[in-house]
Design a protein that fits this description.
Number of helices: 3
Mean pLDDT: 87
Strand order of the largest sheet: 2-3-1-6
Number of strands: 6
Low-confidence stretches: none
Helix content: 25-40%
Distance between the termini: 21 Å
Oligomer: single chain
Number of domains: 1
Length: about 90
């Protein structure tokens, strides 16, 4: 499976898609960013699995706005679709 989708947890509530784009763009091209500010989570789709891995390897545990980010792969296409449709991040 081409796993190019990432779930970001522990975002500060002031974090926007533009902040995520600025942080992730040095590691590859981004197809889509969604931020659920009330839950402190984000969903990022990179253009390739290699770019997503590069993001995880370099940014998992990094600090943004004083909070340590947790970045996980989204392995299930069904879960990814549900998160997109519902606008909720688990």
């Amino acid at each position: 499976m081409d796993n190019n989708r990432l779930l970001i947890k522990n975002l500060d509530y002031q974090t926007t898609a533009e902040h995520i784009e600025h942080l992730f763009s040095p590691y590859g091209d981004i197809n889509r960013i969604r931020v659920n500010r009330s839950r402190g989570t984000g969903l990022v789709e990179m253009t390739s699995a290699a770019e997503a891995k590069r993001v995880r390897d370099n940014l998992d545990g990094s600090v943004l706005w004083g909070r340590s980010l947790k970045i996980d792969s989204i392995d299930s296409p069904v879960r990814y679709r549900l998160m997109n449709i519902l606008g909720r991040f688990f």
